[in-house]
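>> received
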Amino acid sequence: MNFDIIPAIDLRDGRVVRLRQGDYAQQTTYATDPRELALRYLHDGARWLHLVDLDGARSGGLDNLTVIKAIAEDGLQIQAGGGVRVEDDLRRLFDVGVHRVVLGSVAIREPEQVARWLETYGSERITIALDTRRIDDRWTLPSAGWTEPEARTLDELAPWYVARGARHLLCTDIERDGMLAGFNLDLYRHLADIAPQLAVQASGGVRSLADIRAAREVGARGVILGRALLEGRFTLEEALAC
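>> returned
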């Protein structure tokens, strides 16, 4: 069974950044050029790269498409999202070399439309992103860069997408994102219970190699690594080896 180690690059104004808990006011900007960073990850053994257009996540447009295109030309398999709202956005990302498109807000707000895209493009070309925040014993699903509340819940939509052929699910505990507090393992155990057919990518809070091992043990099929790599908590080679 494959387990994917997926380094992440979050883009804002064409630069590499990280947010704390999705808060655009709590941004750390890194001096590294995003394409140079992607090439470093490729050299270190990455097969996949996760790209997030943070500008697009708020604006609803593909604001960093030029940067995504440049990175996609270098040989990594790219999973990219942020700002995808209509089918033309999927086509534009596929056209610049993206292998899988990540659908977040639109997957929460317009699931019937996303189900049609799954049927058209296939389950290997789309990753459903259901990033969640625990409120009053419910796994809620805020949208628009985690800024707007929505009525649907994780427990409702994860099995719903399984029934419509989804294969890949990215799920972040928003409260852990960028906090280096470790994965919320209870969240991934819960997903394994309610939607065991999904290949879940764990995201949000990884701080150590032990966190990666723990995510795998509770059923995740991959991990997204952002701040921990950028700040040298461990190397990509070490993550791949574990």
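>> The chain has a mean pLDDT of 94.
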